[in-house]
Structures are given as structure tokens and as C-alpha cells.
Amino acid sequence: MKKIINEIKKLIIDCLFPNICGFCEENLEKNDYEFGLCQACFQKIEIFDFLSCGKCGARLPNNKKTCHQELKYILGSASTFKNEIIQKLIKGLKYQRAQHFSSIIAKTINIFIKKTKFNFENYLIVPIPIHKSKEKIRGFNQTELIGEYLSESLGLKMIKDCLVKSKNTKSQTETENHEERAKNIKNSFLVKEIEKITNQNIILLDDVSTSGSTLMEASIVLKNAGAKNIVALVLARA
């Protein structure tokens, strides 16, 4: 049934958004239809091949945590937010309802995962939630859309509605500094059905990491619920 639903989604997207590049809007070559970006634009995206510290951004040798031990997660950032193509994908998905960008983002993250050679075999995908009122206005949670593609391509289970946003905070983009971001997001997550998290390795999925406050707060809640290792996966780090 899930496969049929995904095929219907793909058909609708193909009808609404013809085979043009998601960035430059030039016609795509046939081989680029599935990815959604032309080769010229895709080659402008630097895709990393390493995991990093979520606080200082330092590359972690052999993907092992070696600095800032107070962090509850290690960061897997596929690229950098400085890239104009990355910016268009994230802003288009979140603020312009370009839901078809979610597949391009997921496929870029998937390439990053393969390049890192990190073994995610025994991990569960947990998308960062948004508050129900915000989801009602937007119509979807962009991170869940990305997670659906990754879940299928990686063969990993995604758990929705387990980590929830219990507090309707203002957007992190409206805060001025790291301290304000941390204060804004504090105590805004909770875990339902703790048994689904206990003793599990978690892929904490989000679209972008700026100060890391959201990922840190969510990781603390997941760790308190008994999660083991947490890798935060994002398309880009600001």
C-alpha cells in the first residue's frame, strides 16, 4: 500500500511540476528526471563525506565523537547552507510549499550517507516535529516528507508522533543569537510511547542546523527516554 501511495504522489508531482531543474528551471535530461536537478546545478553542491561535532563543526575522525562531550549527538550535515541551491531547496520546501523538493533533499542526504560509509543498519528515523498548529497552517511537516524518502531508500523504520512538539515556540529564525535560540526551544519536546525509543539508535532528522539548539534539546529528551546513539542528519549546517 505504501508503495502504491508513493507512486501516486510521484505521478501527481510529475503532472504539477514537469521535468525541469529544481533550481535553474531548465529542462532536465532524461537521466536527471528522478533526481530533480540538472547536472550543472548538482555539481555546484559540495556533498561532504564525514560526520562532525554539532557544536564546533570539527570533522570527527572515523566518525567517532572526540570533542565537546556534553553534546548528546553527532552531526551529519550533507552540505552547507552557504550554497544558494541548498538555500532554495530548504526555503522552497518550508515556506513556498514546494513539497517536491523533499525528494531532492532526501536524495542528497542519501548520497552523503553513502559517502560517509557510516553503518546506519540498526537505526530508527525520528523526524524533528513541528507544533500541530504550525503543521495545520503549512499543511505538512517538511522533515517527515524527507524522512519518508529516506526510510524507503535506506530500508529503515521511521517513527512519527513519538517525539512531539508540545510547545508552540516562535520560529528560530526570529531569534537573534544562540542564547535566545536555546531559551526559545527549551522544554518544547516530549516523547510519547517511550518504549519505542528505549535502547534504540536514532537518526534525528531535520532540514537544517543553525545554532544546533533544536537538535540538542530534542537529543536530550530522546536520551532521557533511553535512546542510545543519536546521529542528527540534516541537509545543511548554517
Question: How would you characterize this protein structure?
Answer:
The chain has 238 residues and is α/β, with parallel strands linked by helices. The protein folds into 2 domains: 1-44, no CATH class; 48-237, 3-Layer(aba) Sandwich (Rossmann fold). The chain contains 8 helices and 7 strands. Strands 1, 2, 5, 6 and 7 form a 5-stranded parallel sheet that branches. It has a two-stranded antiparallel sheet with strand order 3-4. Helix 3 crosses helix 4 (101-116) and helix 4 (101-116) packs across helix 6 (142-154). The mean pLDDT is 88.
CATH architectural designation of the largest domain: 3-Layer(aba) Sandwich
The ordered string of helix (H) and strand (E) elements is HHEHHEHHEHEEEHE
CATH topology of the largest domain: Rossmann fold
Instruction: Report strand %.
Output: 5-15%
Q: Mind telling me the CATH class of the largest domain? A: Alpha Beta
Low-confidence stretches: none
- Share in helix: 25-40%
Oligomeric status of the shown chains? single chain
Number of domains: 2
Kindly state the mean pLDDT as a whole number?
88
The largest sheet, given as strand count, sense and whether it forms a barrel, is: 5 strands, parallel
Helix/strand structural class: alpha/beta
Tally of separate helices: 8
User: Based on DSSP secondary structure assignment, what is the total number of beta strands?
Assistant: 7
Q: How many whole angstroms does the radius of gyration measure?
A: 17 Å
**Shape verdict:** globular
Euclidean distance between termini CA atoms: 38 Å
